[in-house]
Amino acid sequence: MRWGTFVLCLCAASLLGQMTGAVASDEIPIPKPRPSAAEIEQARKNKPKSSGGLPEEERVCRDRLKRLDVRFTPVRRVSGRGGCGIEHPIEIRQLPGGITLSGRTILNCTTGLALANWTSQSAAPAARRIYGSRLVRIDQFASYACRSRNSKKGARLSEHAKGSAIDLGRFILADGKSVEVGFPGARETRRKAFLKKLRTAGCTFFKTVLGPGSDGYHKDHFHFDMAQRRRGYKYCR
């Protein structure tokens, strides 16, 4: 064999060996270890939950409203100065049992759900039991409003400014009777019983309940809100 031919064969063999080694190392990749069940579960918990751009908690709340037959419309995010606003606001048009609300009622879902449960479990049954008539409309005096508490300058931000409060001032029955919130007269036993029932029940569903006798700002309506306090404390007067 000539020297040139020998060198050429030697180089070809070396190159073939390198290629064979590279193929061999690539043919059987080492698989990554499978995550443990605990790791999979933790990853599932850490994954943000949403549906249609809504947080899971908001989606669940709205599903509950639908099951209660509450008619509502999602509205665009509400924002204002000094912390005012609602991230995921809704406009409630009708409460359980076909009970309507006067005016435009814009709230966050949590407050809307509390209102729906209070209406269906307390206000509507109380109207039938005490007046023998069906509750058909509730006149709301205020829902969302970017303002301080009682609209006082320098006061803390009102729960109305967060969509977490609603003021109710009048209840209309199917027989045409209108029940106003206020101090009942000495002989208005049914009105007294009705308003007392509504006010007492309010503290079951809401975090704050104010009304006639609480202060001069609430002499003609009930104020219900979902203010968060330490240890779940409720303020009912």
Could you write a compact summary of the structure shown?
With 237 residues, this protein is of the alpha+beta class.
Notes on the structure:
By secondary structure, this protein is α+β, with helices and mostly antiparallel strands. It has one domain (54-236). The protein has five helices and 13 strands. It has helices at residues 3-27, 37-46, 56-67, 109-131, 189-205; strands at residues 50-51, 54-55, 71-74, 78-79, 85-86, 90-95, 99-107, 135-142, 165-173, 178-180, 208-210, 222-225, 235-236. The strands form three sheets. Strands 3, 6, 7, 8, 9, 10, 11, 12 and 13 form a nine-stranded mixed sheet that branches. Strand 6 and strand 7 (99-107) form a beta hairpin. The radius of gyration is 33 Å and the shape is globular.
Q: Structural class, judged by helices and strands?
A: alpha+beta
Q: How many strand units?
A: 13
How large is the count of helical segments?
Answer: 5
Rg, rounded, reads 33 Å
First-residue to last-residue Cα separation: 112 Å
Report the mean per-residue pLDDT as an integer: 85
Would you list the SSEs in sequence order as H and E?
A: HHEEHEEEEEHEEEHEEE
Q: Which geometry do the CA atoms define?
A: globular
**Structurally, how many domains make up the residues?**
1
Q: Main sheet, how many strands, which sense, barrel?
A: 9 strands, mixed
User: What percent of residues adopt helix (DSSP H or I)?
Assistant: 25-40%
Residues in β-strands, percent = 15-25%
Low-pLDDT stretches: 1-29, 47-51
